[in-house]
Fold Cytochrome P450.
Amino acid sequence: MAPLVLLISSFFIATLIYIFLNLRTRLLNRHHPPLPPGPKPWPIIGNLPHLGLPPHQNLAAMVPTYGPLIYLRLGSVHVVVACSASVAAQFLKTHDANFASRPPNSGAKHIAYNYKDLVFAPYGHRWRMFRKICAVHLFSVKALDEFRYIREEEVAVMTKALALSNNTSTNSPVNLAGLLNVCTTNALGRVLLGRRLCGDGEGHADLKSQQFKEMVVELMVLSGVFNISDFIPSLEWLDLQGVAAKMKKLHKRFDAFLTTIIEEHKMKGSDYGSGTHQQQDFLSKLFGLKEDVDGEELKLTDTEIKALLLNLFTAGTDTSSSTVEWALAELIRHPKILAQAQQELDSVVGKDRLVSESDLSQLTFLQAIVKETFRLHPSTPLSLPRIADEDCEINGYFIPKKSTLIVNVWAIARDPSIWSDPLRFQPERFLPGSEKAHIDVKGSDFEIIPFGAGRRICAGLSLGLRMVQFMTATLVHAFNWDLPEGQLAEKLNMEEAYGLTLQRASPLMVHPKPRLAAHVYGTTKT
Ligand code: HEM
């Protein structure tokens, strides 16, 4: 009986909230400029049914009807969606200080240690401290250069695994995403913890690493769900989609994993490195933190350390590896572009060694390919949401305090009023002398903002960009690419699966064919 009473009273409360919100909206519209246009909301649930799957595509489809600034009411929450570069710039540049925090959500509560992390920390002291620590010890040019050898070693391991896959008698195709993910996770693992997380990097993954990858994928899928309880808090106790229960279970697994890592690390001591490389890993640096040069307190608790590691491993692996997978899929579909990129690489690097990170600045065409991939396949198509601290006005529309801001990065980068032939993969548009030659992906050109923009722009932009460019360059340079027998390049499935990150609906299965001198791959004795 009790659950029925609770259910009825929850709906009663939700109905009262709905009536109150309707009244409030009318009152707001009387004293303020109007809210932005948007589809008519349903009672109680508001526009939740309008989101559909995948939401970034459905929201983009609303632009011709409502324009580039759309208002939705999701349950009891005001939501505004920015779907053009100029509207995004209004929010993330002109009014960025007002949108510097993230809205409350079940993922932050149940998975990210109840907002004790960096990604969901409210704008303030803890967030600044996390950003400062990461900026100095992980993402500065000095830190990136210090750990360059690790990324180069891990990419070489992946290259060897791909070359070896070509020698096997089974002739089964390789799941490229799997190896790319192992590569990014191990490169990050060695920088953060001083050790690999996924087997040996050559595809012989152990059970633990398989479980870790599954946890990251599950986190992305759960974080991408529009959880009804986030929008109708009175229904939270019902957990209608079962999302909270799954999140709590996942959190327990992550926490056990991270607690073991921290305890093992404390026992092992802080020194890491071999041969000429004697750097301390990031975790050891975190343990040693006390205060910075300005005397500001920078000491982190164990919970904060686990929350930060959780952020870095989840935000920093899948995003980069899936972007490279999309890049390769586009290049396989466009053999002329692939050949042109290989020509550039051969002339800069030659055929007697692998690409090194120091080559990247000379690879203009390769960089254009990476930009074009970020344009068509941004790894977080709806970026990460922000929340309005105060009421404000954008383009003559009223944006109420506590509105959630969604920036449709995916739609902006396909806007036909900004991009010519927007659905075509055309890296030349970014080459010197072309229409978009000066456009970059680092948050100041709002036509293409795969890393977001403003104060909460991606903390790992410098690493993510380097890693994507480096892995793409290596794969293009070291191999020609065949599809499994019977599959035609022009018919390659380019559908998107839905999650917080933009995965391919069907993983890219390939046969890599080495094209450099044999000794380069490390599979033969020189
Ligand atoms: C292809 C690579 C990547 C892409 C496309 C990407 C994209 C993004 C986006 C769109 C945001 C939200 C920005 C906003 O609110 O405006 C974000 C935030 C974040 N990213 Fe990335 N990311 C990538 C790689 C990385 C890497 C390698 C790391 C770290 C190892 C990382 C760590 C973070 C963190 C910590 C935040 C939260 C920042 C904050 O709230 O202050 N990301 N990323």
About this structure: Residues 118-119, 131, 311-312, 315-316, 319-320, 323, 379-380, 383-384, 450-453, 456-460, 463-464, 468 surround protoporphyrin IX containing FE (CB under 6 Å). The longest strand covers residues 69-74. The chain is about 50% helix and 10% strand.
